[in-house]
## 1
Amino acid sequence: MEYGLRLTSLDSPPRDPRDACPLPWRSLLPEGPAVALYFGSEFCEDLLPDLDEAQAFCALASERGWEPTLLTPLVTPVGLEIVHRLLAGLAANRSLPAVVFNDWGVLGLLREHHPSLPRRAGRLMNRSLRDPRAYRDAPAGFATHDSSRFERLHRFFVDAGVAAVETDADLDGGYLGVGQDAAGAGLARALHLPFTFAASGRNCPMKALRYPEGNGFSKALADPCPGPCRTGPVAVQRDDSPLPHWRGGNTLFYEIPQEVARTWLARTDRVVLHQEAAP
Amino acid sequence: MKVLAPLRNSEEVLPLCEAGAQEFYCGLTPPGWEQAFGQASVHRRNPRSAGVPSMDDLRRIVALAQPRPVFATLNAPSYPAGAVPRLVEFGRSLLDDVGVAALIVAEWELLFALCEQGLAPRLHISSLASCRNPGAAAFYRSLGVARVILPRHMTLCEIEATAIPGLESEVFVLNDGCVFEEGICATTHALGTFCLSDRLGGKFGRLDERYEFWKWTQNNCGSQTSRGYTLGPCGLCALPRLARLGVASLKVVGREASLGRKAASVRLAAAALACTESGARPEGIRDAVVALRGAPELCQDAHLCYYPDVWAEGAPGSGDSAVTTASVRSARVTEPNAPGAPENTLAVESHRHEGSPTRPPSRGTGSC
């Protein structure tokens, strides 16, 4: 097993990658080296780093011998330009991160303008259900891990030069597929732990806090946001699920049951560990 | 532009044509589906409360709707193993045997499978596929599909940038908002509506009431006017702008709704389209909509707007005359002929918000 790290701060990357995630999860995870440093956002284009911040992540990754890996979200037309400029700026500074895309427009951008950057399909490219309430009746989950339902999508990814598929744990499994063959052909597999996203969108309550009554939400969709969610996720209580839930900006996350995670670990090459439920 | 109406059965076709529907969409579950795939959704709605009851009824729908096209939804975000081949066969039968004009598809595996069968020109990409930018639209155009349904939560400027040549665009104009974005909401309504029980609490407690209010507007304010009009999200004032952008189709939401609600909604959309075609400006359309529907207070501060950026800064309805959350939520829909109250309005007290901080700079309002 190899690890990617999604850290909240660059101050002190852990020596053992497993130390990056909440304590109860560490004993579940096998030993393995950290190989990648993840930064950016899969859920909100306002959380994309500026060039300096991205450079700092790339420099730290390089110092540690890790692959810098930029997470990108679904994007607006403006967001697509932002990603384009960011990647161009990084390239000008000889930083060449892998890019996790969650938008067909970003994949097109990578293929057309940044063909040398490794491409990884992000977790929003897997639209399988993740409803946390489903675990009320099936605490160990009911994933079949049948990868046949993604055969054509995987083939398309391979033809489009995508190196890997990434996801968090959904209810059905199968998205990660069968991995690469001995010759390295096919798609590498990465699983995000311990947080799974339940729902996301553009009407961010944390952003709405900045507005007077009567504004925010739908009326502020395209307003840029300074990211008040950067201070960290907020615990969410739900009456319909015993699992720990978190609001990270515009996205609701939850911690999957550990017995569910076990069934996924056998089907992945990399675990991307999140220090917290960050969008 | 055409008004696209939801359907549940053939009895709804003629009343909706009369109301002004120019296109239809509906969902049907393939025979034997439940035995093979259990409760897995085919078209994101309960097959009993929102689905067409049978292939025969769908044939009647297509015949009655002529020459208006009927589109069929196969738009679940994901399907169980083994389902895609079955849906490809079913989809082909809907197109070739039943006479459905196009299939509405969200899941990429199904999309690729239908394209392999040469059916791309008869496919519409569901809003669940989250086509939010011109690059994503170009991807779908490269597959050869006919139309893309843009997600609810886009500004007019974003629609303008995303509506590229060679691909029809469809946009939401009436009813049934979404708290999260449906394409990236990984929950299922089969277990109850996840978002409606989402609470902020904690350090965001002071936002709770506003969040509840906004969710209430997305949920059609939980009510109708006394004339049967839904008080849901509405993009009708944006029709002149949408027409200039070349948008092809205006979606009225609510397959599971009653015929009365569907007809009222279609009538409202058709009236707004007629105003647009006669050169009306957004303000004129709003007046016409309010005259039919009532509830002017909900338009006053753009509470129901799908596209609030239609109101440029300083224009009427731009938010300068804020109605407070509490006052609107305490509003009630008047009963027909209620004594002492104007017919078909919401009784609302209006209060200007005092001491509001300046709004942050916008990149979504006004001109693009």
## 2
Amino acid sequence: MNIKSQKDFFSGVMFMIVGGAFGWGSYSSYSVGTGARMGPGYFPLLLGVLLAVLGVAVLLTSILAREEQADHEIGSFAWRPLFFILLANLSFGVCLGGLPAIGIQPLGLIIGIFALTIISSYADMHEFSFKGNLILALILSVGSYLAFIVLLQLQIPVWPTFITG
Amino acid sequence: MDLFHNLALGFGVAVTPINLVYAFVGCILGTLIGVLPGIGPVATIAMLLPATYALPPVSALIMLAGIYYGAQYGGSTTAILVNLPGESSSVVTTIDGYQMARKGRAGPALAAAGLGSFFAGCVGTLILAAFAPPLTELAFKFGPAEYFSLMVLGLIGAVVLASGSLLKAIAMIVLGLLLGLVGTDVNSGVARFSFDIPELTDGIGFVVVAMGVFGYGEIISNLSVDPEDREVFTAKVQGLFPTKDDFKLMLPAVMRGTALGSVLGVLPGGGALLAAFAAYTLEKKTKLRPGEVPFGQGNIRGVAAPESANNAGAQTSFIPLLTLGIPPNAVMALMVGAMTIHNIQPGPQVMTSNPELFWGLIASMWIGNLMLVILNLPLIGMWIKLLSVPYRYLFPAIVLFCAIGVYSTNNNTFDVWMVALFGFIGYLFVKLGCEPAPLLLGFILGPMMEENLRRALLLSRGDWSVLVTRPLSGGLLAASLLLLVIVLLPAVKSKREEAFVEE
């Protein structure tokens, strides 16, 4: 047995696991009911089983295919952009909402924008300019303040709570 | 002629200076929120609803309607320029629109979207005025079984959109349907798959999935390749307006899109969205002219048709609201709210009891469309300039707008954590070669499908055959089966692969 398409093989595995999990979850935790009286578990169980079956089919095609497809390898993961983009997003969330569980106060939109811009710029593996990104963060801060706070009047904390109270 | 008399009455109401100002404000706000990814018309209308208490009812509804179709225009702009569908109905526009932008043809793509939408809007308004009463009769014939089958057809249509394997596309739809089911079950009140997290009982937000999978996933995979072969805009920008050849291709596509959109928009349940998908599918089935760019690589018809369809659909989706009082989507549900605030009971009686409101709203839609074209065509030059910003400055800005948009829909940091998770999932999809567009459609239709299947089977006492024995429902299912067979036919299959493989 050799795998003709890595992408398809692992997609199949993914669909099988997710479909199985949804199916098992809806069967074990919610009442399934009958067609005429569907319980909350009926439709998800149906879809979960369907997804798992589709997963098996995708997996089989990746093994039974006659020839190797072009561009079938998954290749290495780009951990650096993945890590920094998601970290930038998470730190923006922490700045806006704080983390009450460990006593971090909200720092507000402006600090959040600077944190997000600077952290996400590390995701670029090839070009990097700290000064350029500081200027970008400044432009984005002013622009976002005008667009979201002044014009659209969104309810977002702008400044740290220890200043505004 | 009743029609002209009525339209004259409507224009008399709409072309007062004060109502023109409200239509204009609505259009500008709508365009703005459409361009900013994440902040959809639902959130904006919800926020502005209290502000309209003080306005006269006609002006309030005119402004809210302006926001609605302004957002449709604006949403297509980001779909074309940065591959972010600002609106669920512009998901299809990203496929060819973004490819056009990458080849330096963002100008013609934006113009095609704008002009196509305007044409569709004009036709949609006329249809709304002329056929509102008879078209509602058709909607009456649709029971839950028909809706379920219609959604199956819509989903199978979406499969044709994916470039990879059919099986994977169908699996992605099912995955989307499942994700759409997360949250409280409307029937039993049971919170499904919420893992005891209170925020998850409301379900996963559309914005969260769209921003995570399309926005973050795309950015991460873009950053992982060398700047030289990045999927950004290397080609020189050629021309702001479509050429003569472009117009020749656009015109029939716009006509077909408008026709499809007008019909599908009447049906409750995301008419505009289904219309965009259906129009694109239809264009792909027509033969390519010699020398024409294949679909998926920046064909102007792939922008013009769905954009006209979703605008026509947006217009005719007012029909069930104004005539039956049934809101076909979330925005329309808010419009019902706005009407009841002003003591107007939506339903068939609006046309007779408040004719100046009914026809004034219809006339203002046409005026709003005209304003949007005038507003948007000069802006094209400005949007194009945006593309000359280096990617290393563009991507933090996109990440920021996604994050703000996600946060502001619910003012909740939980959605910010969720979008990070979906960003990871989106990147995983890129790596595994799974197309995200079918997933998103399934995600939107999931709860609606369950509800209609549940009702259909309740009425038939658990007998599944009701789906095929009712003629309309059976016809729709047969059509989806036919579509599936056509796509699977060896000849079409190889053509389809060819169209996507050759670079």
